[in-house]
Write a structure and sequence with these properties.
- It is a single chain.
- Strand 5 and strand 6 form a beta hairpin.
- With 416 residues, the chain is of the alpha+beta class.
- The chain is built from 13 helices and 17 strands.
Length: 416
């Protein structure tokens, strides 16, 4: 599960809506708080269906200033507690966890809110304040008394700053040269109880998406799920940078070949068509090898260009390996990715946790275990590898499976 805060600087035009679409498609948040929307509730009737959310609350703008929107997805249960031109305060229930979220927009009333409830509390938004001198670069220095007032307000609420990964500054004035100013105006802060409720939370400063404020994302799932999602995203970006979109390359080349074959003005140029068909072989080979590796099928030889077969095998394997749900240690059925990740983490934490047995207990148990590996067997297993054994193992490696840490697949060592 993840939450995003973003000062959109107006959502009343198609370009801004397109950028919000991009943000939601890129990050898939469970909850998103938007400030400075410059919209009223009547203009947001279709936001839930347009952006794929189940819940929506709108705080109208005043004239052409302000405006707040909170969007959320199931299975989050959100109850609105209070709102104003500068904040939306809610209580969230999610998988037996109840906590409080407050979205802020340059609002000075943070000090009056802690008495409303004593739940674990997460606060995020555009505070239009900085905590320290180094949170501003360029322009006139921030007022010391203003920074102290902000720090005292957070201390009064028992809120601590959550550092973000990525670019440090969250706002820039888009000016040039000596007029360029950057500040860290947007952030998440939380109580200690909230940090204990979500000990593996991670905060990340995202792109600007054509605003002058960065979107800020906080991931509340287990470190396992967060790590896998980040790995998948970075691997996909690496694949695009290194190989491009192979399917699109194939489609474009085939389209160009067909266009040359039916050229009515100049007639088909067979040499050019032949060169284009040779160029088509490379992406076709890449596509075949890709689906062959995805399908884990070894018995069909290269050169068949049977990508549909491999695609079917990969899809079948994915359906077979898909985890629909798991029971956690309390016996509750978990179906969404965050709760499944937490169930896996909790299970292995408990499995590998030590009961801190005494030396006497360990000796008693080990004395009942009969050795299965004899001394002669151990000597045979411990002897150095021979060159013939290494070559035999190398020859048995699938040639195009996952490469070694040096980036070379088995095929390289088998052939060269």
């Amino acid at each position: 599960m993840s939450c995003i805060i973003w000062n959109a600087r107006g959502l009343g035009n198609p370009k801004a809506i397109h950028n919000l679409h991009r943000l939601i498609a890129d990050e898939d948040p469970s909850l998103i708080f938007l400030c400075e929307t410059k919209l009223v509730s009547g203009q947001c009737r279709n936001f839930k269906s347009t952006f794929g959310f189940e819940g929506c609350f709108v705080q109208d703008c005043i004239g052409r200033k302000g405006g707040l929107i909170l969007l959320w997805k199931d299975p989050l249960k959100v109850k609105i507690k209070s709102c104003s031109a500068g904040h939306i305060d809610v209580v969230i229930d999610h998988h037996l966890r109840t906590w409080r979220f407050t979205g802020f927009y340059g609002c000075p009333i943070v000090g009056s809110l802690p008495e409303l409830c004593h739940l674990p509390w997460l606060v995020g938004g555009d505070f239009n304040e900085v905590l320290y001198d180094h949170e501003k670069k360029g322009g006139r220095p921030w007022s010391l008394s203003q920074m102290q007032n902000f720090q005292e307000a957070l201390d009064h609420c028992c809120l601590r700053n959550i550092p973000g990964m990525g670019e440090f500054f969250t706002w820039a004035n888009k000016q040039l040269g000596s007029d360029f100013i950057q500040e860290r105006l947007d952030r998440y802060v939380s109580t200690l109880a909230w940090g204990q409720l979500f000990p593996n939370s991670r905060c990340q400063n995202l792109n600007f998406y054509c605003s002058d404020h960065r979107a800020i994302k906080i991931m509340l799932g287990s470190s396992l799920v967060w790590g896998l999602q980040r790995c998948a995203k970075e691997t996909d970006a690496w694949g695009f940078q290194k190989y491009g979109r192979v399917k699109k390359q194939i489609a474009d080349l085939r389209k160009n070949i067909e266009a040359k074959k039916i050229d009515k003005d100049h007639g088909p140029c067979m040499l050019e068509i032949s060169n284009m068909e040779e160029n088509l072989e490379c992406p076709l080979d890449k596509e075949e090898i890709y689906w062959k590796q995805r399908s884990r099928t070894d018995w069909l030889t290269h050169g068949d260009h049977n990508s549909k077969f491999f695609h079917h095998k990969a899809s079948e394997r994915r359906r077979k390996n898909f985890v629909e749900g798991l029971k956690n240690v309390e016996g509750e059925w978990c179906t969404d990715i965050d709760s499944i990740g937490n169930a896996v983490t909790d299970y292995f934490d408990k499995l590998f946790a030590s009961s801190n047995p005494s030396v006497l207990d360990m000796d008693t148990v080990l004395s009942c275990v009969k050795p299965r590996v004899s001394q002669s067997m151990n000597d045979h297993l411990s002897r150095p590898f021979t060159g013939d054994e290494i070559w035999a193992a190398l020859a048995d490696m699938p040639p195009t499976k996952s490469p070694r840490p040096d980036g070379m697949p088995g095929l390289f060592f088998q052939k060269y």
